[in-house]
Amino acid sequence: MFLIALYSCFFSKGIGTRTAALYVAWARQFEQKGMNEQADAVYQKALENQAHPASVVLHEYNVLCFVSLQCRNCLPKSFVHHQNSMFVVWL
């Protein structure tokens, strides 16, 4: 749980909040502990904060959605309307 707390601290201080690496590492810690709903919330934060590269966030989030089938949405509607790039959404 140390790494989860560390990533949460970084996020709360605004460190790396536009970088996909922060969110992916943070979400993976939750995934490894079977806490997929929390991982989903982290990916949602990444999308809301427009973390870059977006393709990395989208890929990792779609993998979580495919594997767990517990995500609220694979992509929030607001993100779909603001992006014009190619990506795969698991339905």
Strands, helices and their partners?
Elements: H1 2-12, H2 20-32, H3 36-48, H4 54-68, H5 77-82
Helix pairs in contact: 1-2, 2-3, 2-4, 3-4
GO biological process, one term: meiotic sister chromatid cohesion, centromeric
InterPro entries: Bub1/Mad3 (IPR015661), Mad3/Bub1_I (IPR013212)
GO molecular function, one term: protein kinase activity
Beta strand count: 0
Q: Name the CATH class.
A: Mainly Alpha
Contiguous helical run count: 5
Q: Distance between the terminal alpha carbons, to the nearest Å?
A: 31 Å
GO molecular function: protein kinase activity
Protein name: BUB1 N-terminal domain-containing protein
Pfam families: Mad3_BUB1_I
Domain BUB1 N-terminal: 1-91
Describe the model.
The protein has 91 residues and is mostly helical. The protein is 64% helix and 0% strand. It has 5 helices and no strands. The protein has a single domain (2-82), classed as Serine Threonine Protein Phosphatase 5, Tetratricopeptide repeat (Alpha Horseshoe). 26% of the residues are buried. It has helices spanning 2-12, 20-32, 36-48, 54-68, 77-82.
Would you kindly provide a brief summary of this structure?
One of its GO terms (molecular function) is protein kinase activity. This is BUB1 N-terminal domain-containing protein. With 91 residues, the protein is mainly alpha-helical.
Keywords:
Serine Threonine Protein Phosphatase 5, Tetratricopeptide repeat; Mad3/Bub1_I; BUB1 N-terminal domain-containing protein; disordered C terminus; single chain; Bub1/Mad3; mainly alpha; protein kinase activity; 91 residues; 64% helix
